[in-house]
Write a structure and sequence with these properties.
single chain; alpha/beta; Spo0b-associated Gtp-binding Protein, Chain: A; Rossmann fold; 2 domains; six-stranded mixed sheet; five-stranded mixed sheet; 5 helices; 14 strands; 15% helix; 23% strand; rod-shaped; binds guanosine-5'-triphosphate; binds magnesium ion
Length: 332
Amino acid sequence: MFIDRAIVSFRAGDGGDGSHSFRREKFIPRGGPDGGDGGKGGDIVLVSSPMCQSLTDFKYKRQFEAEDGGAGSRRKCTGRNGADIVLQVPAGTVVKTFPDEKLIFDFDRLGLEFVLARGGKGGRGNVHFKSSVNQAPRRSEKGEKGEEIKVVLELKLIASAGLVGLPNAGKSTLISRISAARPKIADYPFTTLAPNLGVVDFHGRSMIVADIPGILEGAHRGEGMGLEFLRHIERTRVLLFVIDVSPYAALPPLQTFEMLENELRQYHPQLLQKSLLVLANKIDLAAEDRGGIDALRNFCRRRKIPFVEISALKATHLEKMKKILFSFHEPD
Ligand SMILES: Nc1nc2c(ncn2[C@@H]2O[C@H](COP(=O)(O)OP(=O)(O)OP(=O)(O)O)[C@@H](O)[C@H]2O)c(=O)[nH]1
Ligand SMILES: [Mg+2]
């Protein structure tokens, strides 16, 4: 199962208590204080790792506790430090407070490390409290409490371009033609239930394209799979609208475009400020009457949106499409 959102509680370890003990040895009558310090509690650390692709692990375990520090003991022995817990998250994970969802940390690339909850400091043992006026301090400190926090982990895939379209438009077919991704493809809606990423190469350059589940009219009200998956294309630079222009499509091409645009607007108007590229797909099936396709083409011309007729299935005009796609994409 692909999990891209989880609510998880973390508790760092408490610091160990300081000790108050006194040196007791046969020939040293008043040996003085020798109570050691408590150890530090373990931290909870998150790391963005290439080994981790989704937040699935947090579906099954929603509570993590790092180890407490050990108590100090006699002969100035410091307690053991509690072990840290280091958890892997995929690059693209954002950490937000629960329940108000304020941003705490953004793992926007691989290899980042963030201490989410700090272990408590160990308490000081009574050796530290000896002074000229108090040779036998009975005082020692308690260990500090470890931090506790409940957060929302949310995955926003890191892709440069996203495929947007009605169910069955041919998005997965397209990504399977332009990258090594092999998503499930079938002649029914909602074949894709989780996003797929593909790396697309073009003359020595490459970019990541996300194939996401199809969007229906009313998705912003929860129709179909809703708009949840649009979160994955929030960060892309380019949106590719894949529009079925065959006679078997659910809606005429221009109407499809308008519906998709409207759903995106409802989700987040800023999505529409990205570069757009309209792909009229399934031209291999296009009818003699091209009225619908021409209406969409003319509309795109007026709006200055690049428009390419393709057949994902037959791999027609995909080079032309890639050329435009890469013209939007400046190397990071
Ligand atoms: N003739 C023709 N059929 C196509 C073309 N592209 C996709 N198809 C077919 O359309 C159907 C749906 O293709 P998918 O790639 O699964 O569509 P999708 O947009 O990923 O669908 P969802 O995952 O359900 O949103 C499949 O039967 C494909 O073979 C094309 O260019 N020409
Ligand atoms: Mg699909």
